[in-house]
Amino acid sequence: MTAPRNSAVGEQESADSTEASKPHKSVKGSKGARPESRLALVRRARRINRELAEVYPYAHPELDFENSFQLLVATVLSAQTTDLRVNQTTPALFAAYPTPEDMAAAEPEALEQLIRPTGFFRAKAKSLLGLSAALRDRFGGEVPGRLEDLVTLPGVGRKTANVVLGNAFGVPGLTVDTHFGRLVRRWKWTTQEDPEKVEAEIAALFPKSEWTMLSHRIIFHGRRVCHARKPACGACPIAPLCPAYGEGETDPDKAKKLLKYEMGGQPGQRLRPPSDYPGRPAAPLGAAG
Ligand code: SF4
Predict the structure, then answer these.
(1) Between 20 and 30 A from 85 (CA), which of 6, 36, 92, 282?
(2) Phi, psi (deg, nearest 5) at residue 267
(3) 113 located within any domain
(4) Do residues 76 and 134 share a domain?
(5) What is the pLDDT of residues 102-135, one digit of tens each?
(6) Do 76 and 116 reside in the same domain of the chain?
(7) Residue ranges of the alpha helices (H) in 154-235?
């Protein structure tokens, strides 16, 4: 079901052989440097992708799911909360309503109570009831594998549709969430703020076959190292390629303390992580620690 892991990483440019060991003072695109050519930007972007593939060979969707319906529901629930909180909530939800038909027939209050820990539970319950009914009535109880169909479902936008396509159907897609947008702007791959424009500009820098894994790698890096408020620049493996190096903590020891999940020796977000994930699984809802 999931997209191929560790897929070949873009094109290899032999001219681009900077060692990723020390912060590079003259990264093109950084303040005071000459404007970066399109070719140099493409090379640097692909180099960053290759470095991230080395750092996170196990990058994967951090929502637990067993089929496309579960992934769709989990992605809708993940708005304004963590994947961990969704993963702690969905086992009971999917046990109660395993199919779109079951969920479409749910009592709204019972559904709301089950998804309450994910926040905004009334609006999310409404979306889940609406999308389940639409799957039952318009798509024969199956999740459609086309973007244009997915975005007609209640509560499903382009980002959710791309998550489902990329990870349940193997259709390449970029997931422009808050981490993705922040990092690609820090890397000066784009200056756009609008997610659709960001998606279009980043899509033009990479072969289509890279889109899904690139998204996972960027989101992994945003969650673990390149945080919104305190990026761990001093412990960042792609610092030599980053025009925003220095925006966060540069002292290596202090930066190391900012690392999260498996990079910081903490549990991950999944209750059932893939077998090659080097970190620890998260605890179920209500468990200590
Ligand atoms: S942590 Fe710092 S050096 Fe690393 S990608 Fe983010 S801003 Fe750049």
Answers:
(1) 6
(2) -65, 155
(3) yes
(4) yes
(5) 999 999 999 999 999 999 999 999 999 999 999 9
(6) yes
(7) 158-168, 178-186, 195-203, 211-224
